[in-house]
């Protein structure tokens, strides 16, 4: 038997077909959905939330701020009506190279013909000439280099994407040999040069403008930093956010999209709050046989650092089909068995025909994979990896997870004001859900007093196993015993009302009393 899977030795194969028991938490893993043309009405967004989406991604590679604002306003209505919290992720454009086809007429490229890539945007796109939004391509590439052009969020179907080989550089123009026949149709085509450094800033002026207007206005929870290539990119973005009001609280997820980001992965991971493995672009930059190894190693590193790992491009075919392919279904499960926190859906929800069905299908696959995940082995590995260098908080929270395993607790209740304690518990991937009770903190900017806590609650919506609830602002984090008891009662009542805490269940509680963290085990009565 595979030691990484928790399967019974003499398990009958027919038992695989037994229907799963319904559960209040359908899956511990999280789903990020990209909202767009097919998924921006209040009705569809509400259904996406009910199906299991917990973070909404807004991709600024296309669409203006007004368009995305309208979508976000609809999301807020949907959140209110469904009573389901949802995080907001802003995805930057970054140094993305694009083919500019002003007329939007389809362009046919024939195998073995030549096409010129030019930075002259005044020219029209034709089958012999493609204008691009970058003047430095001719100095970045050399003869024999590979260039890939595909529809943004392309489905991998080679009739809509093309491989080019650089034949010669002519001034600012690059002449390429077409390696496969294709038709480029539609608005936005991105261009990817394999393993070449593109000398453009990671956070572009357009990104900064969007963040400081749209991002600030909507208090974004997570910034997805496209094309993160160095730790300095994350530091620069954090410094920029720190000057923008509430956005000093925004988490930064580094999006690893090419070999340059992969090379500096360890330093990037230290700086970032989480990592998104952008397998679409990585799949072009890496040899196919290396993709799985990168994924497994990167996810492992994120797990051991206690930072969320998000995997993209899992069910491309569901953009146009109601069922995923066999390979895709297996791929989703493997991402969860590797230890990923969340699955990010792009084209599948943005312009796909079945956004809601895609989310529920991915959620069901995640839930099945979680059932055979070897929690015991994972816990031992994580404790061993942390070694003696554990902080006080981590040693307490890992003890809470151990206690939950030993007493077969139904949930772990964690009281937190910054979210750190809950994230440390989640690092050890307990088999039980972690109810993170976020206690608002009172803070002042010398002008007025405000309560914080909503950011911390929403940011945990991308972490596997954490389910946040925001406590009443009257309950302070480091408060008296009586208020702690009343918050605990509210949390337990919430659990009983929703059916995930039952009579005679055991519940592990992790909370701060004064300066000390306490772990206790409660056995509930009738």
Automatic annotation (TrEMBL):
<dbReference type="InterPro" id="IPR040442">
    <property type="entry name" value="Pyrv_kinase-like_dom_sf"/>
</dbReference>
<dbReference type="InterPro" id="IPR015813">
    <property type="entry name" value="Pyrv/PenolPyrv_kinase-like_dom"/>
</dbReference>
<keyword id="KW-0547">Nucleotide-binding</keyword>
<dbReference type="GO" id="GO:0016301">
    <property type="term" value="F:kinase activity"/>
</dbReference>
<comment type="pathway">
    <text>Carbohydrate degradation; glycolysis; pyruvate from D-glyceraldehyde 3-phosphate: step 5/5.</text>
</comment>
<dbReference type="InterPro" id="IPR011037">
    <property type="entry name" value="Pyrv_Knase-like_insert_dom_sf"/>
</dbReference>
<keyword id="KW-0460">Magnesium</keyword>
<keyword id="KW-0808">Transferase</keyword>
<feature type="domain" description="Pyruvate kinase C-terminal">
    <location>
        <begin position="394"/>
        <end position="512"/>
    </location>
</feature>
<dbReference type="InterPro" id="IPR015806">
    <property type="entry name" value="Pyrv_Knase_insert_dom_sf"/>
</dbReference>
<dbReference type="InterPro" id="IPR001697">
    <property type="entry name" value="Pyr_Knase"/>
</dbReference>
<keyword id="KW-0418">Kinase</keyword>
<dbReference type="InterPro" id="IPR015795">
    <property type="entry name" value="Pyrv_Knase_C"/>
</dbReference>
<dbReference type="GO" id="GO:0030955">
    <property type="term" value="F:potassium ion binding"/>
</dbReference>
<keyword id="KW-0479">Metal-binding</keyword>
<dbReference type="InterPro" id="IPR015793">
    <property type="entry name" value="Pyrv_Knase_brl"/>
</dbReference>
<dbReference type="Pfam" id="PF00224">
    <property type="entry name" value="PK"/>
</dbReference>
<keyword id="KW-0670">Pyruvate</keyword>
<dbReference type="GO" id="GO:0000287">
    <property type="term" value="F:magnesium ion binding"/>
</dbReference>
<comment type="similarity">
    <text>Belongs to the pyruvate kinase family.</text>
</comment>
<dbReference type="GO" id="GO:0005524">
    <property type="term" value="F:ATP binding"/>
</dbReference>
<dbReference type="InterPro" id="IPR036918">
    <property type="entry name" value="Pyrv_Knase_C_sf"/>
</dbReference>
<protein>
    <recommendedName>
        <fullName>Pyruvate kinase</fullName>
        <ecNumber>2.7.1.40</ecNumber>
    </recommendedName>
</protein>
<dbReference type="Pfam" id="PF02887">
    <property type="entry name" value="PK_C"/>
</dbReference>
<feature type="domain" description="Pyruvate kinase barrel">
    <location>
        <begin position="29"/>
        <end position="359"/>
    </location>
</feature>
<keyword id="KW-0067">ATP-binding</keyword>
<keyword id="KW-0324">Glycolysis</keyword>
<dbReference type="GO" id="GO:0004743">
    <property type="term" value="F:pyruvate kinase activity"/>
</dbReference>
């Amino acid at each position: 038997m595979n030691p990484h899977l928790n399967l019974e030795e003499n398990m009958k194969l027919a038992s695989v077909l037994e229907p799963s028991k319904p559960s209040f938490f359908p899956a511990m893993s999280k789903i990020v959905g990209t909202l767009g043309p097919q998924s921006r009405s209040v009705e569809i967004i509400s259904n996406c939330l009910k199906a299991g989406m917990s973070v909404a991604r807004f991709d600024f590679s296309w669409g203006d701020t007004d368009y995305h604002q309208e979508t976000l306003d609809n999301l807020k209505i949907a959140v209110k009506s469904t009573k389901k919290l949802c995080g907001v992720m802003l995805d930057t454009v970054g140094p993305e190279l694009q083919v500019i086809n002003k007329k939007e007429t389809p362009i046919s490229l024939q195998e073995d013909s030549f096409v010129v890539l030019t930075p002259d945007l005044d020219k029209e796109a034709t089958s012999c000439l493609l204008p691009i939004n970058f003047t430095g391509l001719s100095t970045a590439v050399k003869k024999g280099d590979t260039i890939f052009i595909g529809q943004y969020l392309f489905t991998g179907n080679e009739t809509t994407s093309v491989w080019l080989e650089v034949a010669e550089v002519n001034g600012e123009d690059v002449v390429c040999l077409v390696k496969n026949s294709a038709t480029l149709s539609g608005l936005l085509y991105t261009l990817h040069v394999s393993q070449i450094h593109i000398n453009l800033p990671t956070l572009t002026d357009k990104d900064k403008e969007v963040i400081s207007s749209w991002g600030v206005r909507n208090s974004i929870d997570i910034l997805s930093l496209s094309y993160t290539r160095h730790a300095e990119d994350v530091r620069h973005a954090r410094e920029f956010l720190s000057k923008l009001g509430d956005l000093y609280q925004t988490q930064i997820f580094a999006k690893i999209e090419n070999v340059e980001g992969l090379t500096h992965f360890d330093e990037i991971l230290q700086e970032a709050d989480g990592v998104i493995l952008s397998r679409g672009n990585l799949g072009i930059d890496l040899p196919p046989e290396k993709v799985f190894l990168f994924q497994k190693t990167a996810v492992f590193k994120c797990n051991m650092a206690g930072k969320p790992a998000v995997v993209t491009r899992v069910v491309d075919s569901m953009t146009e089909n109601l069922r995923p392919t066999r390979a895709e279904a297996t791929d989703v499960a493997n991402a969860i068995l590797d230890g990923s926190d969340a699955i990010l859906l792009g084209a599948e929800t943005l312009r796909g025909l079945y956004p809601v069905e895609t989310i529920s299908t991915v959620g069901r696959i995640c839930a099945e994979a979680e059932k055979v995940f070897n929690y015991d082995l994972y816990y031992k590995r994580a404790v061993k990896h942390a070694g003696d260098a554990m902080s006080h908080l981590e040693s307490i929270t890992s003890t809470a997870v151990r206690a939950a395993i030993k007493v077969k607790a139904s949930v772990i209740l964690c009281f937190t004001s910054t979210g750190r304690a809950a994230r440390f518990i989640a690092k050890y991937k307990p088999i039980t859900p972690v109810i993170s009770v976020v206690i608002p903190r009172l803070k002042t900017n010398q002008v007025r007093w405000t309560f914080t806590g909503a950011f911390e609650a929403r940011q945990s919506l991308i972490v596997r196993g954490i389910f946040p609830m925001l406590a009443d602002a009257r309950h302070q984090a480091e408060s008296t015993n009586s208020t702690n008891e009343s918050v605990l009662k509210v949390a337990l009542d919430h659990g009983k009302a929703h059916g995930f805490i039952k009579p005679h269940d055991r519940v592990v509680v992790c909370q701060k009393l004064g300066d000390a963290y306490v772990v206790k085990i409660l056995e509930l009565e009738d």
